[in-house]
């Protein structure tokens, strides 16, 4: 009897040791692994079958949870559970989730802050701000196209206008005016130079 008692005690001790090892090895698992097993609280007392959560304030309707319709489309759930739905798209948008933009006038249809106007179901027109032209107002108007600056002047196209850059002896809208003060000054310099040359020549003689 004494021998049997000692055998039973030894078996119990071995069981306790193995249990302690298993518990110790589990407690040393990485924290990230243990965090992958969160507790989820789901109330089974919600009277509304479309609500879930501990306070029955979360919708389990697919349209509310996923919000699949884009571009301000309206989602309609086809059943109280599951993910069957359809989208009512605003004018100009199509597709299962209203993601296709079929509008004639998009934000970038008319460039340079110009105004897009739908004229028919298939056509549009861009009202360009001054200084721009083209179907999408993409071309800057060249105001030098039919302008010819005189006396080797160079035309520069500016905003809503042009400017002729003239040589220093000319001025005017088209560089057509010869600067008289410069001409008089040049004539005076030439005549003075000739006079000095003649005087020097006379003295040397």
UniProtKB/TrEMBL annotation:
PROSITE patterns: EGF_1, EGF_2, EGF_3
Matches recorded under SMART domains: EGF, EGF_CA
Any one Pfam family match given in the protein's UniProt record, by short name: EGF
SS bond partners: 89-98, 128-137, 166-175
Signal peptide, first to last residue: 1-25
Domain of life of the source: Eukaryota
Entry's Gene Ontology molecular function annotations: calcium ion binding
SUPFAM superfamilies assigned to the protein according to its UniProt record, in alphabetical order: EGF/Laminin
UniProt-listed InterPro entries: EGF, EGF-like_Ca-bd_dom, Notch_Cell-Fate_Det
All copies of domain EGF-like, residue ranges: 59-99, 101-138, 140-176
Sequence intervals crossing the membrane: 186-204
Keywords for the protein's UniProt record, in alphabetical order: Disulfide bond, EGF-like domain, Membrane, Repeat, Signal, Transmembrane, Transmembrane helix
The protein, known as: EGF-like domain-containing protein
